[in-house]
Amino acid sequence: MGKLSRATVRAPASSANLGPGFDCLGLALGLHDEVSAEITGSGVSVEVEGEGSGSVATDEHHLVAATMLRTFEEFGLEPPGLRLKCRNRIPHARGLGSSSAAIVAGIMLADELAERRLSRPDKLALASEIEGHPDNVAPCLLGGLTIAYTTEDRARAVSVEPSPRIRPRLFVPTRQGLTAAARAALPERVGYEDAVYNLSRAALLVDAVTRKPSRLFDATDDRLHQSYRAEGMPESAELLRRLRSTGIAAAISGAGPTVIALCVDGAPVPAEPEGFEVMRLEVVSGAAIVTDREPE
Hints:
Layout: E1 6-17, E2 21-40, E3 43-50, H1 63-75, E4 81-88, H2 98-114, H3 120-131, H4 137-142, E5 145-150, E6 155-160, E7 166-173, H5 179-184, H6 192-210, H7 216-219, H8 226-229, H9 234-245, E8 250-252, E9 259-264, E10 276-280, E11 288-290
Parallel strand pairs: 3-4
Antiparallel strand pairs: 1-2, 1-11, 2-4, 2-5, 5-6, 7-9, 7-10, 8-9
Helix pairs in contact: 1-2, 2-3
């Protein structure tokens, strides 16, 4: 192990897809989980405050702890024990990247404590391998608007700076959703016209988010996944329909059921609908080690 025995990381929420960018586009959002880790003499213990308290594992099966152990194993190391304290703010199972934040936090904590200094591309590749797809881990790690893609050997991503005029609004329902169920609702094949439609919108979305927010409404339209998933999240699908019917650039966040609206400075802000909590967030930078905090 390295000389450090304690470290803390802040990892942001993320919203993937943004309509047409299925499994490739994502935004880092200003809602953070904070995780502190300490090397101990034996065993693995996890203390959780906030989201997931009383429902998630508090031993080596906790996702942050399991990711840390996996990362240490990649380094050829085995810590004698771990103690974690998680201060969770990202809602679980809502399409806001809580699992990606846990995975990114685990990799960064293990890297910091082992003093290995993995490159961001290496962290992204490992996080994507653990998560199974890069669309949420990329913005969590890199920040901003990210474009994730895969090559023959690994997942990769680039981050671009969004327009400061964009003000995301998240409509978070009390009801949870499951990524596995949302993916199971998708067809095995899609039509050529729909594929081309989404390619054009995803390309336009990068321009809209970075340079021309006036194009966001057209750029956030989708034909590949949201309609197929609507039956499993009817309240969110109806909210999405209502928002877009008034010209608001809205989409299902990740696998849902949260709805994201990419609002622009000066434009009307959607009202808070019944059954949803509205979060007004900024687009932020990626996960970072916090050097001036220690576990309590």
